[in-house]
From TrEMBL:
<keyword id="KW-0808">Transferase</keyword>
<dbReference type="GO" id="GO:0032259">
    <property type="term" value="P:methylation"/>
</dbReference>
<protein>
    <submittedName>
        <fullName>Methyltransferase type 11</fullName>
    </submittedName>
</protein>
<dbReference type="InterPro" id="IPR013216">
    <property type="entry name" value="Methyltransf_11"/>
</dbReference>
<dbReference type="GO" id="GO:0008757">
    <property type="term" value="F:S-adenosylmethionine-dependent methyltransferase activity"/>
</dbReference>
<dbReference type="Pfam" id="PF08241">
    <property type="entry name" value="Methyltransf_11"/>
</dbReference>
<dbReference type="InterPro" id="IPR029063">
    <property type="entry name" value="SAM-dependent_MTases_sf"/>
</dbReference>
<keyword id="KW-0489">Methyltransferase</keyword>
<feature type="domain" description="Methyltransferase type 11">
    <location>
        <begin position="38"/>
        <end position="114"/>
    </location>
</feature>
Amino acid sequence: MATYDALGTTYARTRQPDSRIAAQIHAALGNVTDVINVGAGTGSYEPPRTVLAIEPSQVMIAQRPQRSAPAVQAVAENLPLRDNAADAVMALLTVHHWTDLTAGISELRRVARSRIVILTWDQHIFRERFWLVRDYLPEAAAFDDARAIPTDHLLDLLGGGRQEPVWVPHDCTDGFGAAYWRRPHAYLDPQVRAGISMLAQTSEDTITPGLTQLADDLRTNRWHTRHAELLALETIDVGYRLLVTDH
Ligand SMILES: C[S@@+](CC[C@H](N)C(=O)[O-])C[C@H]1O[C@@H](n2cnc3c(N)ncnc32)[C@H](O)[C@@H]1O
């Protein structure tokens, strides 16, 4: 069973694509003619030129909007596609889930004619700048330490490329890990946590003490006092990165 058959049942509810991040991803894709989305999930951020989605979880495929690109149930490590199948391939917030990263990236390079776009995050920056994992849930950060992929390593596997920061708006509609950086109460909501794999895959027992502390700090306004500067910000860079490579 694919991991997201269990994790992804409420994905479409809390993980709506954010228009500002979509604009950045689409700009990074440029004017390529066709796009294949690998680790596509429910289809977030697919531009109209998307011709195919690759996704191992049937639960995620079932949540794709009607009229989105056709989806094939498969994994990145073994793409059922010919060489140079599309102008561009994108893989968004997925590479950390793959069982064989080297094989998966090599498949992306085989299938993409000209451009690959990957959305991932820099775990060092994330750990340092994101208050939730730094101050309350170090266990969740430790879980991510084990699976996060250094962006330099990814760029090596890709054969080079550039990386750009993806700033997270305070009202981000895509409820990934740090999306609620200025809406701390959201992390107390089990449905929100279910859409964030670092929290959904760390046991409730492990994260309960940190969440209890957060609830207390919110109730007493300690969180607001400590993070007053965050409340004045519109966007934040906590380490999300877009990698763009041409070949
Ligand atoms: C956090 S979701 C991201 C989905 C989508 N790209 C998005 O941005 O909303 C991670 C996705 O990666 C998929 N995935 C897990 N292992 C995979 C693999 N080996 N190959 C391709 N996709 C995989 C999961 O099933 C899940 O749909």
